Amino acid sequence: MTDLINCCFLALIAFCGNIVQLVFFFNYSLKLKEQSIELTKRTEELEKKNGSEQRQIEQLNQKLAELAKKINHDQRPITTRTKRKN
Q1: Which among 66, 85, 82, 64 has a CA at the least distance from the CA of 74?
Q2: What is the three-class DSSP state of 82?
């Protein structure tokens, strides 16, 4: 009879230990999910910011190209001076 009680007692302790392990595992899993969601949100924010900055860079490059064309168009070719006949 004492062997049966000891086995049941050990099984009960093992069962409680297993429950505790499962609680820790699920708690850890929930923390990982929360961090994953937070990182996803942060990544989306940074991608939006990067996208707007990239558009600004493209616009500035277009303006720079337009100004370069305008400067090249406005420049007159340098002519060589001719000597005056005395």
Answers
A1: 66
A2: coil
- Chain segment 46-86, per-residue pLDDT in tens: 888 888 888 889 999 999 998 888 888 766 555 655 666 65
Q: List, for residues 42-57, the tens digit of each pLDDT value.
A: 988 888 888 888 888 9
| pTM for the structure as a whole | 0.47
Distance CA 53, CA 46 (A): 10
Phi then psi dihedrals of residue 65, to 5 deg = -65, -40
Nearest partner of 52 among 64, 40, 44, judged by Cα = 44
Query: What Cα–Cα distance (Å) separates residue 44 from each residue in 36, 38, 48, 52, 84?
Result: 12, 10, 6, 12, 71
